[in-house]
Fold this protein.
Amino acid sequence: MAVPVAAAVAWLPGAGRARAADPAEAPAKVFAAYDRQDSPGCSVGVMKDGAFVHLRGYGMANLEHGVPLGGDFAGRYYSPELDTAYAVEVKDGALFLRGRRLGGALTPSVRDEFTLGSMVLRFVRDAQGQPSVFLLGQGRVRNLKFARSEAP
């Protein structure tokens, strides 16, 4: 049984004198109770000067199927047009893109859409609700299709 959990944390400038030196320290303390494989999860992002300084998931995305947060996106994606494959991986609750030519942390922008620098990855879900394709866009390139695959 999936149990939805929503949480919002706002850090207001000037709201208290003591500040944590590590931006991950405060969220880790607040969400420690959810950082288990038997707990519904949540994602936490801490921004400073318009950029993420901490991005991490705590708990599970789907308790019934044992899917970690971000885990439904994880897998290998292949583009026959480029003859190139990329892996989407979950590390510490955050998504990473790994490939021969590029890689790095994926920053969530809107539902099923992530950025990596100027590149945009938009995941498309199949009839069962699982991500089956991502469309890559960067510069003049739009909707370059990478389908979930175990081969090549």
User: Anything to note?
Assistant: Residues 25-30 form the longest helix (6 residues). DSSP finds one helix and 13 strands in the chain. Helices lie at 25-30. The domain at 75-148 is CATH 2.40.128.50 (Lipocalin).
